[in-house]
Write a structure and sequence with these properties.
With 233 residues, the chain is α/β, with parallel strands linked by helices. 39% of the residues lie in helices and 17% in strands. It has a single domain, classed as Spore Coat Polysaccharide Biosynthesis Protein SpsA, Chain A, CATH 3.90.550.
Length: 233
């Protein structure tokens, strides 16, 4: 398997068919073997029924169903575990990420192990954009990182690096940092960002500030306590 596309889904019923139509068109054009893994993260809007119908239409589609809503990190971890592709691509299900940007990410995979999308001209409420920029600045200062847009899900990874990770809730925000610790070379690529067609965002400003700060402290602790030794010949 060449590529696995991992897509967390939480209450995105009206976007799913549009996404799969656009995504399969792009992936087919690559003329490589691929799979699409949609993880239904306890949706309550009928996304499960739509995914089952789409599975009958697209043979490349695999659907994983959570018993309850477990969050983005859990959905990504489940997708990473089931992925068979040498390169794993992640994206949101809300159609704000553009499947047309996937080839742009893949062009960098020869020289790098992780390619992170950076959303240009974001189409989100201004308060969310400002809060994200502030959070990115603080996160980079504390972790001594230079990741421009940690909130962009559109990324490509070499699977051999993902297999080394042990993820905890909230760690999706720090995936590039965690993978750098494993020796991965990371690069950023500018990608498009579209207005949401249907549904509403699942993440506000205040419902994630405290958790994100606690997660940041955990990553700082992990960085300071990492085992770093070499055996002398």
């Amino acid at each position: 398997m060449d590529y696995s596309v991992v897509i967390p889904v939480y209450n995105e019923r009206d976007n799913l068919e549009i996404l799969l139509n656009s995504l399969t068109e792009v992936m087919d054009s690559l003329q490589k073997e691929y799979e699409i893994i949609c993880i239904n993260d306890g949706s309550s809007d009928g996304s499960d029924e739509v995914l089952r119908a789409l599975k009958r239409k697209y043979e490349q589609l695999m659907v994983l169903e959570f018993e309850r809503n477990c969050g983005l990190t859990a959905a990504l971890a489940a997708g990473f575990f089931r992925a068979q592709g040498e390169i794993v691509i992640t994206m949101d299900a809300d159609m704000q990420n553009d499947p047309q940007d996937i080839p742009k990410l893949l062009k960098q995979m020869g020289d790098y192990d992780v390619v992170c999308g950076v959303r240009s001209r974001r189409h989100d409420p201004w308060l969310r954009i400002i809060s994200s920029r502030i959070a990115n600045y603080i996160r980079n200062k504390v972790t001594k990182e230079e990741i421009t847009d940690v909130g962009c899900t559109l990324r490509a990874y070499k699977r051999k690096f993902l297999s080394r990770l042990k993820l905890f809730d909230g760690m999706h925000r720090f995936l590039p940092t965690l993978l750098k610790w494993e020796g991965a070379k990371v690069v950023e690529v500018e990608v498009d960002h579209h207005p949401r067609l249907y549904g509403k965002t699942k993440y506000g400003v205040w419902n994630r500030v405290f958790k994100a700060f606690i997660d940041l402290l955990a990553v700082v602790w992990m960085k300071r306590r990492r085992l770093n030794y070499k055996i002398k010949e």
